[in-house]
Amino acid sequence: METTNQKMRMRLLRLIGVALFTALAYVIMLLIHFPVSFLTLDLKDAVITLCGLCFGPISALVSSVTVALVEMVTVSSTGVYGFVMNALSTAAFSVTVSLIYKYKKNFLGAIIGLLSGVFAVTAVMMIFNLIVTPYYMHVEVAQVANMIPTLLLPFNLVKATFNAAVVLLLYKPISTVLQKIGFLPKSNAAFKFDRRTILVSLAAILLIAASLVVVFCVLHGSFRFGV
Predict the structure, then answer these.
(1) Residue 56 has pLDDT above 70, yes or no
(2) What angle do CA 51, 181, 163 make, to 5 degrees?
(3) 126-152: per-residue pLDDT in tens?
(4) In terms of Cα–Cα distance, which of 33, 105, 26, 27 is closest to 63?
(5) Which residue from 42, 20, 29, 37 is spatially nearest to 163, judged by alpha carbons?
(6) Strand pairing partners for 41?
(7) Alpha-helix runs per DSSP H in the chain
(8) Beta-bridge partner residues of 225
(9) N-term to C-term CA, the chain
(10) What is the pTM of this model?
(11) What is d(CA 128, CA 88) in angstroms, rounded to the nearest whole number?
């Protein structure tokens, strides 16, 4: 009976954890974003990917769809188009990363997962921009194709790299805190402030800085706080 109770407790904590990550992703999407033409770079993909790394790829998928749906009915002006593209973008990144990490739960698995997520979301968004965007913007496919090298491809690469770097910077500290407060099982791979941690953190910070430089200086984006 005690084992059953423990399993039920962990399931409840998992549900609460996923709900908290989902709510945090929505709030961060509202508060901090970088408009680039008709596109928007934000941090919600990183938050939902952290959710997937902690609680599994299904949690990442549920959170991706939920945040996109709530965004559509509250603040988005792009309707179903925005919902589809947001859900696809976030799910392609977060589910890919967390699925790979689920079966290779170490530092190498995390790096492979993040790199795979960057390429997966970029490929998915190129395909669906060619399929969906012409209908939404009422333009020819050729016009959307012309935007790929100058806007769509660099934007999606930068957005995915930016969120991957944030995940790389925050996953271990956050997972360690969740272990300490009981949301995750105890692990021997808890956060340690060693040489590798310092190097990984510095690399992540440099990637974040480089991504923002590209957003502001190359893609001519801007910063917006709040709705």
Answers:
(1) yes
(2) 25
(3) 999 999 889 888 889 999 999 999 999
(4) 26
(5) 42
(6) 34
(7) 2-31, 44-55, 57-74, 79-103, 107-137, 141-147, 153-180, 195-213
(8) 32
(9) 49
(10) 0.93
(11) 9
